[in-house]
Amino acid sequence: SPRHRQRLLRHWLRQLEEGGYLRAEGEGEGWLGCAERPAQSPEDAWTAFAGCAPAALWPAELVAYLRDSAQSLGEQLAGRISPAALMFPQGSARIAEAMYSQGLHAQALHEAMAEAIAAIVERQPQRRWRLLELGAGTAAASRAVIARLAP
Asked: What is the pLDDT of residues 21-58, one digit of tens each?
């Protein structure tokens, strides 16, 4: 709901203010960036993130991909680097596996999807179902659904 989003946004703004990144301007008039806060280089920010990111949520392969993708965004937008080449270097699926199969975020999404599909299928058990996964080629979602629907 919009009200819930407003509460969340206010929470994020307070966190940024407490961290010294923003300061409130007047009574609810807006927010200003804090120029006195020293800027962190993108390399330092990625190194800091990689050092504290829980591996269960952020597999190292995924963090490296996100860093490389962010650093080459201009070249991707200009068409000099293919986003697919970053995701599948030399045809390897290791980064796609990290993004779509590893990590608690992926597992939670696949489990939720498998439960939703199972609920639909269980409403019509006499029907013959055919499911097609469209994705990055890892079959991560299919594995979860097949495991859930297995007799």
From this structure: 888 887 767 878 876 666 678 888 898 889 888 888 88
33: three-class secondary structure by DSSP: strand
The dihedral built from the CA positions of residue 95, 100, 101 and 106, taken in this order, carries a sign that is: positive
Q: Which residue has the tokens 């990144």?
A: 21
CA distance 131 to 142: 9
Structure tokens at 131: 């499911």
pTM over 0.85: no
- Phi and psi at residue 23, in whole multiples of 5°? -140, 140
Q: Which two tokens stand for residue 120?
A: 């639909």
| Angle (CA) 107 140 143, round 5° | 95
Domain ranges of the chain: 2-33, 42-100, 104-149
CB 31 within 8 A of CB 18: no
